[in-house]
Predict the structure.
Amino acid sequence: MWEPDEGYYIGSAVSMETQKNYLVPMLGEEEIFLDKPPMVYWGVLGGLKLFGQSEFAARFFSGLCFFLTILVIFALEFSISGRFNNAFWATVIYATMVVPFIAANFVTPDTPLTLFATLSMLCFWQSIRPNGSKRGLWIVLLAMAVGLGFLTKGPAALIPCGAMFVYLMIQKQIKRFFYNPWIIVAAVAFAAVGLSWYIYISWKLPDAIAYFFDNMIWGRLASDKYQRNPGPTGALIYLPVILLGTMPWSILWYRSNRGLGTFFNTRIWKEVFSDSSKTLLACWILIPLIVLCMASSKLGLYALPIFPAMALATVRLLPTEKQSSAVEESKSPVVLPPKPTFVLAWISVLLFVRIALGMIPTWHDDRRLWQELKPHLPMGQYEIVTIDKRASGLWFYGVQEVENITRRANPYPTFIPTENIESEIIDMGQDDYPHLFLIQNNKHLSSITNRLSETNWTIEEIPLKHGRWLLLCMPNPIPGSDKPLSFSFEISPQKDMIDCTEEVFR
C-alpha cells in the first residue's frame, strides 16, 4: 500500500469494516474522513469481501473500473464509427497509454471517476446522435452515470457536463435536449444516486456542509489553501501528463497531417464543427482541460477523465484503408492496425514498469514499513503516532491504532482538525500504554525527543530505513504507587512455551 493516497482510501475502508459503519468514512475510531465520497471505499470493501485480505483484493475495484472503461470506449467508438476494427483499436490505445494503465494499479478515485465520465459521454451521445432512439431513457442513464461520478469525487464529475453543454450550444440543440419531460426524471435520478449520501452526512454531521463546500468547490477552484500547484504556472503540470502520459500513441499527433500541426488551421476546425462526433471529442478534451488549468487545485491525475477522449481522437489518426463501395463510404474509414510486434513490445514495457515500481524501495511503501515496525511493537495495547507524514495504510496490515499529528502552523485542512504534539502529550498523560512516534527524517528529531522527555516516560530512539526514526515511549511506574503490575501472556504453539511481558497497569 502506497502513501499517501492508498493509505487514506484503504485505511478508511478497513475502518468502515471494523466499525460496521458503511456510510461515515473513518480513519480509526476517532477521525472522520470526509475528503472523498464513499464510492472508492465501498469498492475496496467489495474486493476484500470477494477475495479476502490481500493487496490484489484492495485494488480489484480500480482494475475493474479500468476494464469497464475499456468496454465503454469500445461501445462509444462503435456507436460513432460503426466499425469493429476502429472500436477495437480505440480500446487498445487507451489501455496501453501510460497514465491510465499506471493509475489503474493504484487505489484513487480517478480511475472510477473516469469510468463514470466515459459512461456519461456514451449515454449523452446516444441521446443526441442522429437517428437515435429512446433518447429519454439515455438521458436518465446519463444522469445516473453523473450521479455515480458525484458519489466518487463530488463536483469533479460535473466537469464533463460542461463539455456536453458547450457541444449543445455549438450544435444549437440546447432547447431540443432540455425541453424533454424525461429531464425531470433524470434530475430525480441524479439526486437519488449522487446526492443522497451528502444529504445523509449533512444531517448526521451538520458541519459537513461547510466542509464539503470548502473541500470540493471553493478550496479546489479558488482558494490555494490545499496547495495543489496553485497559480497559472501550476497548469504546466498537465503538459507532461498529456504528452508523455499518452505515449506511445501521442507520436501520431506529430506524424499525422491531421495532428497537432492543424490546431490553428481554421479549415480543419470548420471540418470538426461540421461533424457531430468530432465536435463532441473536441469539447470533451478542451473544456475540461480549460477548467482544470483555471482551477487553483491541480494534480496530474485530475486530467485522467479526458484520456478516453484522446484515445478516440487518436484512433482517427491511424492510417486507413481506401473505401471500396458506396455502402462502405457511409461509415467511417477502416483504420489499419499498428504492427503487432510494436504493440506487444509496448505492453511488455508497461508490465515491466509496473513490476519494477513495486520493487523500488521507498518510504511510501506501507508493507515494508509494517515489516520494519513489527519487531518493535510491544505486546498488549499500543498506539502509533505519525508526525506530518501519514502512514494510514498500516490499518490494512493489522496495526492497533494509528494517529496523525502535525508540527505545521497551517496543516492540511481535514474535517477533524489535526492535533499537534502538545495535545498528544496531554492525551499520553491519560494513557498508560506505549506510544510509538514515527518521524520521517531527523530534521526535527531532537526537538520532538526533548519535548517528549519532559514527560515521565522512557524514550528509546530506533533508526529505520529511508531516514525514518521511531521513538518508542514507554510509561514508567509512578514512584510510591501501590497499583499492581499486570502480566500479559502469549502462548506460542511452535515453541510450546509462554512469553511473559511486564506492563504497567493503570
Notes: The chain has a mean pLDDT of 86. The first helix runs from residue 5 to 19.
